[in-house]
Fold this sequence. Notes:
The protein contains 13 helices and 13 strands. By secondary structure, it is an alpha+beta fold. It has three domains: 41-147, Beta-Lactamase, CATH 3.30.450.20; 154-232, Helix Hairpins; 240-401, Heat Shock Protein 90 (2-Layer Sandwich), CATH 3.30.565.10. It has a six-stranded mixed β-sheet, covered by helices on one side. The chain has a five-stranded antiparallel β-sheet with strand order 2-1-5-4-3, sandwiched between helices. The chain has a two-stranded antiparallel sheet with strand order 6-8. α10 runs antiparallel to α12 (351-361). The longest helix has 51 residues, at 149-199. It starts with a helix and ends in a 5-residue tail after the last strand.
Amino acid sequence: MNNFVRRAFEKIEKLSIDEIKTLVGYQASENELLGKVFDTLDIGILVVSESGRVLACNTSTKRLLPVSRTMAEGSSIKYVVNDADLLHFFNTMITSTEPISEPSIEFHFQRGDVVRTLEISHDSFVSAVDSIFQHDTGKRHVFFINDISENKRQEARLHRSESLASLTTVAAGVAHEIKNPLASIGIHLQLLRKAFQRKKKLSIDDAKRYLDIIDEEIERLNSIVVDFLFAVRPMDVHLRLENINRIIDDLCSFVEPELNSQHITLKRQLAQFLPKVLVDENLIKQALLNIVKNAMNAMEVNGGLLSVTTKLQQDQISISCSDTGTGMSEQTLSKIFEPYFTTKPTGSGLGLTMVFKVIKEHHGEINVTSQLGEGTTFTILLPVPKSERMAIEDKGEAYETDDTGS
């Protein structure tokens, strides 16, 4: 209620008939203006009383939601809402006495051949008019209905484009990788044929050196195909709310003996009171292990320091792994996540590709900084779910644990 109307109500007994008519006319004009704006909004707005009666709804609400044509002010939502899940959401928001950690939710509705995705959020308020007239009508519950179908379609198109680009890169890597074993098989088949032509008859011992190499190359081809399938096949991800510090602590304890054997000191700086994040524990551990292994390879000659740090950055948790190893050139840094790219003679070139893929499956980001001769830092950013943002008690100063994790 605006201040002008509030003051008028406070002095209503002193106002003349003409002044009251002016006040009512002013309020009617303002209500008409607000009503027109209300009805022209693309976002649906539904206001419901604590008893479940519709107090107000705009045209977009009726257009977007599966409701009956009889929906109007005074209607009970249980009789006009034609979707059980949606009605359950409305009732939950209206009747809950506790703060709702997830006051918005997405719904999918089929309209002909088109699937619409709606994001519905909730808020509530107590009317200022009630306090003036000492009415006790309870809270008003406001639902905002936003059609995000096009946003979802654009996200899907972008994801398909990224997947296609990634698949093209992987396919190019596979084509490059299979050339060498195929060439080797071809060469040894020719040598085997020539040896047979010379001797007319070959013993197993004569043919063994050729067959052994052909077998090795076939195994190599099989390994390339298996790695290719891993790179392109969707991961079976099972996300659960987990304490990321516990996962990292477990991993550090697991790799610590091997780090010590290579004269690498492990330093953990894990922020206190971090909110939980949605992760697949096994996959995130494997991704972090690959980063640690990468750091170990960079420090295998002279040892060094591996620092693992967690902290809260706005709505994300940051996980950093920093080593004091050999570092990487800008050229190497630009290619490290590409499939089959490796600087090691025996590397598969898929370790960091797997890391990148796991982090993307967790809707996170990964960044790398490095300098030759100084070391490398991998930084992973994981989003904090809305349900956990409310539970943050302290954005926290990092505490250091010793290398035993105590």
